[in-house]
Amino acid sequence: MHVDVDFLSCESNALCAAAAPDVFELDDEDHLHLIQDNPPERVWPEVEEAARACPKRAITLTES
Predict the structure, then answer these.
(1) Sequence ranges of the domains in the chain
(2) CATH number at 2-62
(3) 54 Cβ partners below 8 Å, 6+ apart?
(4) What are the C-alpha distances in Å from 38 to residues 1, 4, 41, 57?
(5) Per-residue pLDDT tens for 36-61?
(6) Cβ neighbours of residue 21 under 8 Å, at least 6 residues apart?
């Protein structure tokens, strides 16, 4: 799975970071960072939940 974030649409509300903390991180200035764009299969359910939770639909998942 490959993860893309549209940072122009992202509101940095941290719902994705709460759902998948191994993949998404919010820094001290409330900027979202994508830690892994090809996360291991064990966290795919969390990443899928993060994409569903994003109110701006800024997260896109594709098969790699």
Answers:
(1) 2-62
(2) 3.30.70.20
(3) 10, 15, 16
(4) 6, 9, 9, 19
(5) 999 999 999 999 999 999 999 999 99
(6) none
